[in-house]
Design brief:
Chain lengths: 309, 309
């Protein structure tokens, strides 16, 4: 048995023996609160799923609370015929892929350069890249520059390029490089006649898969979930990403917009709700199913960020 | 090849030349940042001009402080500032301390599997997009078909139309924020707690400390630097309540309490094309945020020893 394992067991036994009445109550309270919180967190998501496959009337009457009732796939059937949703899906996949690649390509090299203490002008460039975290031109000047100077409004490029430099990603990856790459490695490479570029691509990148994964996942989720830039900078519905289509369905009530009165309208509204539940499931599925498998990378990233660089 | 450190060094140009590869690595990000982040900072001068798109940013006539005065004198000034502050202070008062409590609680759990399930499920909602989140809020709270009024009715509580109740807006915003981000926001504190030397606890146990005493004297003390850093960052965005969620939750009935600076600015700027007026509001907002950040950072540096820069 290793020393740490022995220590652990010793602590465990010690705890078991010494557990006072107050400590036992303390534990009971903690596990109860945590249990309730877990249920409160999971229930709304569970409800969306069961509501999406239930009879919309049952849902509207409040009869669907714990399990699906009056099983119906009408919502999903309708969803499959909604071409704008699937086009949005396709657009989002495209924006997410291209956007993530660009983000990796621009932020990681900067982070590495800033981690090098022997680079002249390091202080200046660090300020250059961090200052916008705290101050910016704001929405309107940015819009005017993109619209009038660069003519980028309503293009594919506006969704992936202008906002690809993220100060926070740079700070986190810089910290990673500073703490995980020993300076001796660069010294040794230099003696072997290796230049900065070759060193970065041949040595640094292969050693930094962890941070690449973290930034790629953050960037991908960010692109997948964002609607703001699309709302501001896109005009053509054919270019809309998933979240903007979702906004029209969920918030602007595009489904129920056909203004009818009486029971027909009520029926349409109930069906609209069914479609909404289904749309939520369909749009969130990729991230939600992927998340448990890549969870450790997300946590790692936050923890690297917590170290002060 | 000689090792870097013996080479030149006194001469800056020599140092730049030696590491030219590093500057090349930064080039794409520098160009993107200059075009799309620093150019808009220059573009912010339209706040002091009568901006006409045909005349361009520089060519438009100077207007002095006209647009600032117009904002300060409009009835929307107090309205938007008060709403922004109410939402932002309420959010801070709730979402700043809760993740700390959650992390402390998590740190007390010894049932490994339970802890894992608890953490994964409380992180999960963080990955729901803002659009879907707001869609869920609106559907769940709907007085006719929402699940929350149905559940509350079981307990005999009449909720009424919560989304149409202006007074409930801040509460809805804040507590859904808690549901979505509480778990995620606690990661940084959990990381800080896991870095505590176990010997500290062992020493405390030898002295007969109860769990509660250990939390108070060890855990909380060790979290202070993380708390201060995150607190300063939070203060820096006191007037920067996120646009995305508020905008989606707004409706005609709650607008009196939900019109915040960023949503007002968006409507003035991009919906009514009052570019200069909107840029002035944005600049005012950013300057206030920046000044608060510097002040709080300065105060923290003076009384404690934690600061951002």
């Amino acid at each position: 048995m290793s020393v740490t394992a022995m220590k652990k067991t010793a602590r465990h036994i010690g705890r078991r023996i010494k557990k006072s009445r107050a400590d036992r109550i303390f534990d009971a309270v903690i596990y109860t609160v945590a249990g309730i919180m877990t249920l409160l967190t999971l229930y709304p998501m569970y409800f969306i799923v069961i509501a999406s496959i239930s009879d919309p009337n049952m849902v509207a009457q409040g009869n669907v609370l714990l399990y699906p009732r009056g099983f119906s796939m009408d919502g999903y059937n309708h969803l499959f015929s909604m071409s704008n949703l699937w086009r949005g899906y396709g657009n989002t996949i495209l924006y997410s892929l291209a956007g993530t690649l660009i983000m990796l390509a621009v932020n990681i090299p900067v982070a590495y350069a800033l981690s090098r203490k022997d680079m002249a002008g390091r202080g200046f460039f660090t300020f250059f890249f961090i200052f916008p975290m705290f101050f910016g031109g704001g929405l309107i000047p940015t819009f005017i520059i993109l619209n009038n100077t660069f003519n980028m409004v309503d293009t594919f490029l506006v969704m992936v390029l202008p906002f690809s430099v993220i100060s926070y990603y740079i700070v986190v990856s810089r910290t990673f490089f500073q703490t995980s790459l020993p300076a001796e490695l660069w010294d040794a490479a230099q003696i072997d006649g290796c230049g900065n570029l070759r060193y970065f691509f041949r040595v640094v990148l292969p050693l930094s898969k962890a941070i690449l994964a973290v930034i790629a996942l953050w960037a991908a989720v960010g692109h997948w979930n964002s609607y703001f830039n699309a709302m501001i900078y896109l005009r053509t519905p054919e270019r809309y990403p998933l979240q903007l289509v979702m906004r029209n369905i969920l918030i602007n009530n595009e489904m129920a917009a056909s203004a009818m009165t009486g029971s027909a309208a009520a029926d349409i509204n109930r069906k609209a709700n069914l479609i909404k539940y289904g749309a939520i499931v369909v749009s969130s599925l990729p991230i939600m199913t992927m998340y448990p498998f890549v969870q450790k990378y997300f946590n790692q990233g936050v923890m690297i960020g917590a170290l002060k660089g | 090849m000689q090792p870097a450190r013996t080479l030149g060094g006194r001469n800056t140009w020599e140092r730049v030349r030696r590491n030219w590869g590093l500057y090349l690595l930064m080039l794409p990000a520098v160009v993107i940042f200059i075009c799309f982040t620093y150019l808009p900072m220059y573009g912010v001068i339209i706040a002091f001009k009568d901006f006409r798109p045909a005349q361009g940013i520089w060519g438009s006539k100077w207007a002095g402080l006209k647009y600032f005065e117009r904002y300060f004198n409009s009835y929307m000034f107090t309205n938007t500032i008060v709403n922004t502050l109410v939402i932002s202070l309420y959010t801070m008062a709730v979402t700043f301390p809760l993740p700390i409590l959650l992390a402390l609680m998590c740190n007390q759990m010894y049932a490994k599997r339970f802890k894992k399930v608890f953490q994964v499920s409380t992180y999960l909602p963080h990955f729901i997009s803002t659009v879907v989140m707001c869609g869920m809020i609106i559907m769940f709270l709907s007085p006719s078909s929402g699940v929350i009024p149905k559940i509350m009715a079981v307990f005999g509580v009449k909720t009424g139309d919560l989304m149409g109740n202006a007074g409930a807006f801040a509460g809805i915003y804040v507590w859904t924020e808690v549901w979505q981000h509480l778990g995620w926001d606690s990661i940084m504190y959990i990381a800080a707690l896991s870095a505590i030397d176990p010997q500290l606890y062992e020493a405390a146990e030898v002295d007969g400390a109860s769990k509660w005493q250990k939390i108070r004297t060890i855990d909380i003390t060790m979290l202070v630097p993380t708390m201060v850093t995150l607190f300063i960052l939070r203060c820096g965005s006191l007037l920067g309540v996120g646009f995305e969620k508020v905008y989606l939750l707004q409706n005609d009935l709650n607008i009196s309490k939900s019109e915040i600076i960023s949503t007002y600015l968006y409507k003035m700027g991009l919906k009514s094309n009052q570019y200069s007026y909107s840029a002035a509001i944005g600049l005012f907002n950013n300057v206030v945020n920046f000044v608060i950040l510097i002040l709080v950072n300065q105060i923290s540096r003076t009384i404690g020893d934690t600061s951002l820069f």
